[in-house]
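Task: sequence design from structure.
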């Protein structure tokens, strides 16, 4: 039997046992712990009949008394037997010192009448037609109830099992290496949020493995180039044994810096991705911060930087160094992939602030837009430019750390427009 079917059966059997236990328990509680009002009414009616009989007793013969007792027994679906005091349990006898009648909805009930030493035992008459019908009705009701509940549970469990089997088969597929497997998210197939969680987990695993694969390729490609160049410089240095050639020494130093940049970028992305970073937030005038940043980049950058700020000071609570880094990454990309102009604008809305960085480059085709934020992902067009494919992933992580977002659109200036959206 498959594990899911076994689980289904064991759950089903446990549920039926629980239901049965609940029925027995409710019967016990109804009988012993809660006052049985039907029993109290029966006792009160019976007591009235016996009191009436006692009133009549002085006017009728002993035979007539017995006839009337038999009639009361018959009408109440009982058997009434005279018994001696010794046959009555002690605790009942003690109770009957204060009352004439002892009804306990048990097998035997008792009453005393006519004089203090005349006791009677009451037994339910199982052969009475009405008692038989009553017992049968009780039995049929319980059986029907159990069958109904069992059927409802069977239908419910069957649906549950079907949904679980689908999720199980998706998980088996994923565990066997088919990372593209996803479970159904149709309303009729959903099991709470489980389907979405399984799919999100699969997306995350696929993304992680993809990014690790790209990391391996990036490292292989990006590390090999500066290492190869360093090797060349070293060889040229050793050939030229008369004096240390400053050009080659500088070349080696440049390559070391390049490697250092790459390692730093990798480390800071890894730190952000693992959510090890807690932003140190402070409220700043974001327009002034951007203005300064643009000024700094304008002096180093080949492209023209245009900054359009808000007409008033715009305050925002951010981690200044992280936001500076995110915008700097976007400006560096605009310079790398654009032609000659970079347009930066700040827009303040009711609930958010948007920082747009646009360029006049070739832009990014629609199908690639969703991929560029993945770590180590680079478009083919970027193969002749420096970079490790981490800049935009870092921007995205910074946006998420601020509960914000990053979007990529086509710019009206011909190239790409990145919008860093930060909530107020
Ligand atoms: P990289 O180090 O390669 O620049 P990024 O994560 O910053 O890494 O960018 C990922 C890829 O997105 C780049 O390789 C490039 O192909 C593309 N890209 C990023 N910014 C732009 C832009 N402004 N215009 C066109 N393409 C861009």
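Answer:
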């Amino acid at each position: 039997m498959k594990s899911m079917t076994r689980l289904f059966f064991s759950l089903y059997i446990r549920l039926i046992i629980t239901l049965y236990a609940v029925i027995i328990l409710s019967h016990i509680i109804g009988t012993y712990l809660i006052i049985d009002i039907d029993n109290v009414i029966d006792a009160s009616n019976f007591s009235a009949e016996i009191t009436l009989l006692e009133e009549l007793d002085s006017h009728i013969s002993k035979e007539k008394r017995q006839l009337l007792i038999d009639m009361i027994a018959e009408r109440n679906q009982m058997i009434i037997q005279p018994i001696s005091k010794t046959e009555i349990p002690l605790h009942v006898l003690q109770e009957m010192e204060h009352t004439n009648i002892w009804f306990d909805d048990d097998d035997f009930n008792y009453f005393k009448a006519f004089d203090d030493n005349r006791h009677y035992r009451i037994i339910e008459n199982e052969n009475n037609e009405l008692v038989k019908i009553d017992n049968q009705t009780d039995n049929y009701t319980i059986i029907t109830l159990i069958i109904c509940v069992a059927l409802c549970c069977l239908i419910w469990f069957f649906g549950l099992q079907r949904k679980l089997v689908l999720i199980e088969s998706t998980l088996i597929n994923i565990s066997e290496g088919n990372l593209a497997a996803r479970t159904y998210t149709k309303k009729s197939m959903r099991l709470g949020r489980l389907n979405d969680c399984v799919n999100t987990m699969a997306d995350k695993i696929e993304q992680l493995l993809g990014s690790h694969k790209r990391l391996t390729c990036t490292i292989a490609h990006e590390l090999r180039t500066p290492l190869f160049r360093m090797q060349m410089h070293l060889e040229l240095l050793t050939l030229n044994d008369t004096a240390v050639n400053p050009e080659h020494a500088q070349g080696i130093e440049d390559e070391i810096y390049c490697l250092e940049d790459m390692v730093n970028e990798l480390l800071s992305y890894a730190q952000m991705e693992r959510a090890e970073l807690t932003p140190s937030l402070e409220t700043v005038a974001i327009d002034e911060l951007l203005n300064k940043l643009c000024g700094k980049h304008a002096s180093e950058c080949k492209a023209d930087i245009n900054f359009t700020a808000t007409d008033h000071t715009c305050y925002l609570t951010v981690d200044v160094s992280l936001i500076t880094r995110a915008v700097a990454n976007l400006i560096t990309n605009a310079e790398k992939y654009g032609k000659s102009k970079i347009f930066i604008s700040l827009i303040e809305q009711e609930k958010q602030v948007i920082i747009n960085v646009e360029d006049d480059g070739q832009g990014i085709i629609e199908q690639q837009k969703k991929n560029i934020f993945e770590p180590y992902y680079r478009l083919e067009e970027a193969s002749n430019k420096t970079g490790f494919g981490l800049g935009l992933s870092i921007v995205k992580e910074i946006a998420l750390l601020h509960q914000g977002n990053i979007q990529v659109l086509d710019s009206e200036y011909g190239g790409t427009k990145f919008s860093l959206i930060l909530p107020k």
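Residues 333-334, 337, 359, 361, 364, 372, 377-379, 381-382, 387-393, 415-416 surround adenosine-5'-diphosphate (CB under 6 Å).
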